[in-house]
Amino acid sequence: MEGTPQVQPQPGQPVTMKPHRGPVILVLGIIGIVLCFITGIIAWVMGSSDLKEMQQGLRDPEGEGLTRAGMICGIVGTCLAVLGLLWYFIVIVIIGASGGFGAGC
Q: Which domain does 81 fall in, by range?
């Protein structure tokens, strides 16, 4: 990303970066799709934060692919959960308005 300042170490100081959390974020994102959308939200937030730190040079960029994939899985899992909840509430409203399952014609 252009315009993002890179962190430059002071002369004589070792360059230390935080390790990447790509595998953790990917696992959370996959669980977010399959089981629990809350882990998808966590993967989305963690992935976004880690990618920003990678761009700034604060986190090891080696895991960028895994981090990005996990964040995308988290976004997909969250969106699917929201769509599922919307569908659920729409069906409840339609069934409730029509008098339920056992209503006759």
A: 22-96
Residue 9 lies in a domain: no
Q: CA dist 66 to 18, 30, 31, 44, 91, Å? A: 16, 12, 15, 12, 37
Split into its structural domains, the chain has a count of 1
In a domain, 33, yes or no: yes
Assign 28 to helix, strand or coil: helix
For the chain, 105 residues long, give each residue's pLDDT as a single digit of tens.
Answer: 454 555 555 666 666 889 999 999 999 999 999 999 999 999 999 999 999 999 999 999 999 999 999 999 999 999 999 999 999 999 988 888 777 665 555
